[in-house]
Write a structure and sequence with these properties.
405 residues; alpha/beta; FAD/NAD(P)-binding domain; Enolase-like, domain 1; 3 domains; five-stranded parallel sheet; 10 helices; binds flavin-adenine dinucleotide
């Protein structure tokens, strides 16, 4: 037999071997489980292997920032325990297992429990909380809430009437401020910007949100940042602010944002920028490796406009999971994102927003009380904002915006 015939035979048997391997998913968050659920609607036979650092219990992460007012502990937020997810989807779940690297050449993942081959690999490993450089002997006592475990720890630190400082007046900071203040805690919010959610909202809407939360007792420290956090023995935390002020609080919650987890993908050779770069088919630069969720930087063509960007929200995941399931079952399908409103869970002033792509030139214009449209400089409406009772207009506004695009 000629050498090339032997090589062909070897490579055919290797390919046959690879296609018999399971689809492997890294991560048991919304992205990982949604990808599996959608895949199972199309394929009930192919083995699927999921790795997660966590227990694999299914819960709605957005509930973490409004669970206190509902008096829910971490266990009560679990909507489907891991074992039930396993029995309904037929996946093999390796809990408390860290994936440490990906060998793209042999199509294997290296984990804390050994090496495992994959036919196709889905990176659904999410994002991690950004840690700000802060001085002081208690700087590492700040807590971020991005998992059930974090929430459980955070809840454990709270006591009746506790003083909580929230760093960051973005979406998650504002939601926690509302939840904590309406649950009887004394809440301070600090942010270097001049208003809450200022990068998303028109200024007067930001001011309305600020006063609605102040109405619940939230104390604002805007245009300032945390300089140091220290503690003397069992006393309260002493926080000094860049503006010179100092505060005594019991808990510091950091809500300054999340950073896509790119390390695993990048060290395995996948291209990454602000997230793992994928094309419209959610394929990374590595063969047979896909990504979706908070770790992903979606291609601009899948967004229709603007540059590639991360979309760390629920709706993009649901849409991406549907397209990915088709692709994984041999029907390459580009993801298509519809109008995806973000619901901001601040009952003091409920908000629903569809923001234009970052950097879109244009301006917010008030349509009527509680309704705003974002008019781009090219004369098209590229976003809307609904406030308070006007959030009931959500379906109408989605229709209007979808027709305009
Ligand atoms: C407090 C809060 C409130 C929110 N509210 C809203 C909201 O109202 N609306 C909205 O649309 N979005 C909201 N979001 C965002 C939304 O929840 C996220 O976009 C979504 O849950 C992200 O899911 P994910 O699966 O991509 O990531 P994650 O949930 O972070 O899951 C990542 C998974 O990967 C695992 N993992 C990571 N690295 C490894 C490794 N090396 N080996 C093994 N496993 C690994 C982790 O253990 C985890 O299971 C909120 C987020 C937070 C934190």
């Amino acid at each position: 037999m000629s050498q090339s015939a032997t090589e062909n035979q070897q490579s055919n048997s290797q390919n046959a071997d690879i296609s018999a391997r399971p689809v492997v998913i890294i991560g048991s968050g919304l992205a990982g489980w949604s990808a599996i659920k959608e895949f199972r609607k199309l394929d009930t036979q192919t083995p699927v292997l999921m790795f997660t650092r966590e227990s694999g219990d299914f819960y709605a992460k957005p509930a973490l920032s409004n669970a206190l007012a509902q008096k829910k502990d971490a266990d009560q937020l679990i909507t489907t325990p891991a074992q039930k997810m396993v029995s309904t989807t037929g996946v093999t779940l390796l809990q408390n297992t860290e994936v440490t690297s990906i060998d793209a050449a042999t199509q294997e993942v290296v984990t804390s429990k050994g090496r495992f081959g994959y036919s196709q690999l889905v990176l659904a490993n999410g994002a991690s909380a950004i840690k700000l450089p802060i001085s002081g002997n208690a700087a590492n006592e700040t807590i971020s809430v991005n998992s059930l475990k974090d929430y459980s720890r955070f809840r454990g630190l709270l006591f009746e009437g506790a003083r909580v400082l929230i760093m960051g007046a973005g979406l998650i900071g504002c939601e926690f401020a509302n939840d904590l203040a309406s649950s009887g805690y004394r809440v301070h919010v600090i942010d270097p910007n001049q208003g809450p959610l200022i990068s998303l909202l028109p200024q007067s809407a930001s001011e309305e949100l600020r006063s609605a939360l102040a109405g619940l007792g939230v104390m604002w420290h805007l245009g300032s940042s945390v300089h140091s956090i220290s503690r003397e023995e069992q006393a309260a935390l002493n926080v000094t602010l860049s503006a010179g002020e100092s505060l005594r609080v019991d808990v510091v919650l950091s809500a300054v944002g999340l950073k896509a987890d790119c390390e695993l993908a990048a060290k395995s050779g996948a291209q990454c920028e602000r997230g793992i770069l994928v094309n419209a088919y959610l394929q990374t630069s590595l063969p047979n490796v896909y990504a979706l969720g908070d770790n992903t930087q979606y291609a601009s063509e899948s967004l229709g406009v603007g540059a590639a960007r991360t979309l760390p929200y629920v709706m993009p995941i649901m849409n991406a999971a549907k397209a990915l399931a088709q692709t994984l079952t041999g029907h390459p399908t580009p993801v298509s994102f519809p109008v995806m409103p973000i619901v901001i869970k601040t009952p003091a002033l409920p908000l629903i927003i569809v923001a234009p792509a970052p950097g879109t030139p244009g301006e917010w214009r008030s349509v009527e009380a509680g309704i705003w449209n974002f008019w781009a400089d090219d004369g098209e409406v590229k976003g809307f904002l609904l406030m308070g009772a006007q959030t009931a207009q959500r379906s109408n506004q989605i229709k209007l915006l979808s027709n305009a695009q």
